Amino acid sequence: MRVQTIYRQMVNWKAIGITSLIFNILFVLFFILAWNIGSEMEEQEFECAMNVCSEYNIYWYDDYMEVCTCYDDNQVQVKTEYIG
């Protein structure tokens, strides 16, 4: 009977270990995906600021529509460009 109890405890630890391993792998994959999405958005905003609206003081980048909008000093919309 003692051997069965030890065996059950070992099975429980194996299940906990496998579950922890799976969750850790999923967490790392999620982190890598979030990092890639964030750096892609940052690159597009940099392109908006430096290439599209470099001669204007104010810009706004809409990451959902992927549109870069430039404004002059009086906050009047001057230029809009799709970055995709």
Salient structural properties:
3 strands, alpha+beta, 19% strand, three-stranded antiparallel β-sheet, 1 helix, 84 residues, rod-shaped
Describe the structure.
- The protein has 84 residues and is α+β, with helices and mostly antiparallel strands.
- The chain has one domain (2-82).
- It is 61% helix and 19% strand.
- It is built from one helix and three strands.
- A hairpin with a 4-residue loop joins strand 1 and strand 2.
How do the strands and helices of this protein lay out in sequence?
Layout: H1 2-52, E1 58-62, E2 67-71, E3 77-82
Antiparallel strand pairs: 1-2, 2-3
Précis, in short:
The chain is built from one helix and three strands; from the N terminus they run αβββ. With 84 residues, it is of the alpha+beta class.
Order of the strands making up the biggest sheet: 1-2-3
Using DSSP, what is the number of strands?
3
| Class computed from helices, strands and strand pairing | alpha+beta
Ranges where pLDDT stays below 50 over 5 or more residues in a row are none
Radius of gyration: 26 Å
Note the overall shape: rod-shaped
| Helix content bin | 55-70%
